[in-house]
């Protein structure tokens, strides 16, 4: 009996050995009339083996690389926040119009103001003050108003009495036009001048951090480019770390490569929205069938509760207007693009708070087994490691999250492991790039892929096909893509044995 158990254990251990580079399956004598045979594995067995290998490699990536990426993002965020807050505080000091129309930068909440689009790219929203009369301005959107999908006009409420309209117009006279539209084009000049003067003032005073800041005007928003010395920051962290001496052996090339990096901050004028806007379709990011419906309904209930408590679940942002002339609704795009006045009135919808609720919901699905956050981190590692080109930069957090929402909405039942989530996501991304079409999760008339250049899309399609093919051939390529292994390294023998076991 002991011999049978021992033999059974041995057969289990060598269930799928590798012989002469071919994937083979050993059939034990007990299952083949006393004869031992070796047959080629089925596609199902090969798929199971890839699942096991990828899960092992994922654990290694999560333990070694993801924390490093998160630390880097946290360092970048802290630097961006410190520099931007100091700049805005000086800009607002003594500036009548900025203080009259914008919230105090020092009192704004961190969650609403800052959002990470990537490891080194951030949004900073400067919110206009709350209106003294609730509902002073109302968003106007839709093709019947000649407003392109994803955008809105913001005008004085038509239902107000004449006296109320006069009061609103008087209070916001520097920011509206003669027809009562709140215009990013009217706010931008004094907004940009205040920040530009503050930056020049701090640079003239010899502020070392501000001397590394370059301001670029992208009407009606601003972009700050911040040069950061990553090596100095890491050295500062290592002073409090007794194990830092082991890191001093890094090569000079790596130090030079990491020495200076550029952080991007988009400073955006924004208005908070409270009542659900017309044209937006709220839907849960999971199927309506059991067992998913309860989690999805709870997500929508949390959003409703937050709105009832006075929280803003969407914003209108003053972004550079990029209107498509080739995709759907091209006539409306053309009409607006030919009219400078209409262009200067356009605000862009942003549903970042709602998307945060949705993303937390799908991350908690099946206890987080699907790991959508990890999939996005792996893609960010591939971009940061230089394994894919800079053409992937347009795939910011908003685009990646939208694709993930559609994936879980349609295929939640098929997502049980990280590899399934990862490969399904790459397939969905490839499909959307092929057709250059993917609807916004809340604005069905808005195609989020129209912001991606066709040449970038072609490069991404080719690289996705290359990634899928390479992982099909050898799953250890995932370690190369994420920077754990170098291309010229030999496979780790101990690691291979662990995977096979």
TrEMBL record:
GO terms for molecular function: metal ion binding; nucleotidyltransferase activity. Keywords: Magnesium, Metal-binding, Nucleotidyltransferase, Transferase. It comes from the Eukaryota. The keyword Nucleotidyltransferase applies. Residues 227-249 have a biased composition (Basic and acidic residues). The keyword Metal-binding applies. Belongs to the mab-21 family. This is Uncharacterized protein LOC106155913 isoform X1. It comes from Lingula anatina (Brachiopod).
């Amino acid at each position: 009996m002991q011999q049978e158990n021992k033999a059974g254990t041995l057969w289990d251990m060598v269930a799928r050995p590798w012989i002469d580079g071919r994937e083979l399956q050993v059939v034990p004598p007990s299952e083949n009339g006393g004869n031992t045979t070796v047959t080629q594995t089925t596609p199902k067995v090969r798929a199971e083996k890839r699942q096991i290998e990828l899960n092992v490699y994922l654990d290694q990536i999560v333990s070694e690389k993801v924390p490093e990426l998160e630390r880097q993002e946290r360092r970048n965020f802290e630097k961006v926040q410190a520099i931007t807050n100091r700049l805005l505080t000086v800009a607002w000091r003594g500036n009548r119009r900025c203080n009259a129309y914008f919230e105090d930068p020092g009192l704004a909440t961190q969650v609403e103001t800052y959002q990470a689009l990537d490891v080194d790219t951030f949004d900073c929203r400067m919110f206009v003050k709350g209106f003294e009369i609730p509902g002073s301005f109302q968003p106007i959107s839709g093709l019947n108003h000649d407003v392109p999908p994803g955008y809105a006009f913001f005008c004085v409420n038509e239902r107000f009495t004449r006296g109320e309209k006069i009061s609103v117009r008087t209070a916001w006279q520097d920011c509206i036009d003669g027809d009562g539209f709140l215009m990013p084009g009217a706010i931008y000049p004094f907004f940009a001048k205040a920040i530009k003067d503050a930056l020049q003032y701090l640079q003239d005073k010899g502020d070392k951090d501000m001397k590394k800041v370059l301001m670029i005007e992208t009407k009606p928003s601003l972009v700050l480019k911040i040069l950061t010395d990553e090596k100095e920051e890491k050295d500062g962290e290592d002073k409090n770390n007794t194990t830092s001496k082991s890191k001093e052996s890094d090569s000079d090339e790596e130090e030079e490569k990491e020495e200076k990096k550029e952080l991007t901050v988009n400073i955006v004028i924004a208005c908070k929205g409270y009542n659900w806007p017309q044209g937006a379709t709220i839907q849960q990011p999971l199927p309506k069938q059991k067992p998913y419906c309860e989690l999805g309904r709870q997500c929508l209930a949390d959003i409703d509760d937050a709105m009832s408590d006075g929280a803003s679940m969407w914003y209108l942002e003053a972004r550079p207007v990029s209107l498509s002339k080739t995709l759907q609704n091209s006539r409306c795009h053309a009409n607006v693009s030919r009219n400078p006045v209409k262009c200067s009135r356009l605000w862009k919808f942003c549903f970042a708070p709602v998307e945060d609720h949705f993303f937390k919901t799908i991350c908690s699905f099946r206890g987080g087994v699907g790991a959508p956050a990890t999939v996005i981190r792996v893609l960010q590692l591939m971009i940061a490691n230089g394994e894919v080109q800079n053409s992937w930069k347009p795939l910011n957090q908003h685009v990646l999250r939208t694709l993930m929402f559609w994936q879980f909405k349609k295929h939640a039942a098929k997502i049980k492991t990280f590899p399934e989530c990862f490969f399904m996501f790459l397939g969905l991304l490839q499909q959307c790039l092929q057709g250059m079409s993917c609807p916004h999760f809340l604005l069905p008339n808005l195609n989020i892929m129209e912001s991606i250049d066709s040449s970038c899309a072609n490069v991404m399609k080719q690289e996705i096909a290359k990634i899928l093919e390479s992982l099909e051939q050898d799953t250890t390529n995932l370690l190369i893509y994420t920077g754990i292994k170098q291309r010229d390294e030999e496979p780790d023998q101990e690691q291979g044995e662990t995977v096979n076991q």
